[in-house]
Design goal:
This protein is of the alpha+beta class. The chain has a 4-stranded antiparallel β-sheet with strand order 2-1-3-4. It starts with a helix and ends in a 21-residue tail after the last strand.
Amino acid sequence: MHPIVHTIVVGIISYLVLIAIIRLSGKRTLSKWNAFDFVVTIALGSTLSTALVSTQVSLAQSITAFAVIVALQFVITFSSVRSRAVKNLIKSQPTLLLFQGQFRQEAMAQERVVEAEVRAAIRENGIADVERVHAVVLETDGTFSVIPDAGGSNSALQGVAGLSSHRA
C-alpha cells in the first residue's frame, strides 16, 4: 500500500477506534489533567502518531496499543478509588497557597507559584482585595480555586495540604 494511502486509511480507522475506546472507557479518560492523565494523553497521541506515519506498525498493533493504554488507565484509576496507596502514588494533594488573606510563602515556594499568579486567579474571580479572600488552593490539575467567603467548617478544604496548621 502506498504510504499516503496507508496514512489516510490507518488514520481514519485508528481515529474512529480511539474515539470508540475512549467513549467506552468513561469520562475519567478525558478528565482534567493531573500528571497521570497527562501521561495517558501523551501516550495515546504518540500511539496515534506512530499509527499514522509508520508503515511498519500494523493497524492491529495500533488498536491493541490504544486498548492497552486505556485499560491500564482504567485499572489504575479503578485501583486509586479503592486504595489510598495507589491514589497517593498517582495523584498529588491540593495545596493551600493563601488563607484568610495571607499568602503562605513556604507552600508557594514548594509549589513554584509566585504571588502574581495567585493575584491573577483572585482577579479572574472578580475579587479586588486579597485580604477579602478566605483561601486559594492549587488543585491537583494545576488550576487555582479561589474561595471568597469563609464557611463555618472549611469542609471544602478537607484534604488540602496546609490547612491543619491554620484552623480558624
